[in-house]
Structures are given as C-alpha cells and as structure tokens.
Amino acid sequence: MSASPPLSHALIGTWKLVSAIARLPNGTITPDVYGADPVGYITYTPEGRVLVLFARSDRPALSQAIESPFSSEIQSLSSEELAQAFLTFNAYAGTYTISGDTVIHQVEIASIPNRVGTNLLRTVAVSGDQITLSTPPLSSGDGSVFELTWERVRAIA
User: Rounded distance, CA 116 to CA 96, Å?
Assistant: First the structure.
C-alpha cells in the first residue's frame, strides 16, 4: 500500500465547492448554510498562494446592467440590493501554510475587509478527490463549526 502524499502536495490544485454545512456543538447539522447548491472554487498553488471564491447559486441578478464595480451605475442600486449581493458572495486570497492537519490562510485581500491581515485556520480532511475544510468553533453565536467540502477539478484536456 502506498503512503498518502503529504498534505502540502495533496492540496495543490483547484477544487470546486460541493457543499457547505454547519455543525452545532450538540451534533445537530444545518445543511445548505450557503444555499442548496453553493458554487465556488479554492485554489492552492505550489508557491504557497490560496484563492477562495464562493457564492449562493440562487443569487438574483442585479436590477440594472452593471459593467464594472467601478462604474457609476452601481451607485444607483439600493442599499438593500447591494447588501444582498454582498451577503451571498465571499472571496479572499493570500498565502497559506500547513501545520499537521491544519491549513492556515494568511488573508491579504478579502470581500470582508476585517479579514485582511488575519489568519484563518482550517482543519483538513482528505478523502480521495475531495477535501473538507472545517473552521474552528465560532467564538460568537452558537459555536458552530462550518464544513466546506470541495472536489478536485481535473485539468482540461
């Protein structure tokens, strides 16, 4: 039987989001915390970079055609519509390091500005062509652990 590759090699590549659940301290699972079919990708590079993007699949289109987030048209949207767009999408990027079964994302840019300069710890479980990244229990709220399962994206032939 061959040994599994070290986690640093196993993570390298691009992964597509399969599911996002919340696990409460009492063991109760809240499925679909980011919608029934969340969409997203996470990429780990050999150079130690990480890029994470995910969204609800049922995000409504904006009420106006917006060519760019820098265009003046976006300012005409309501605060509620902009808030809904923000609440249904998450993105960040930076570097990563590995310690045991934990990957630490050092955030350099993020859709949530308060994450910049922070470290996000994720416990990693590898199972074939899937990885599950689990957050530590939330220190605020109900102590939920969020588990995001990703499936390896194969190279385009």
Answer: 14
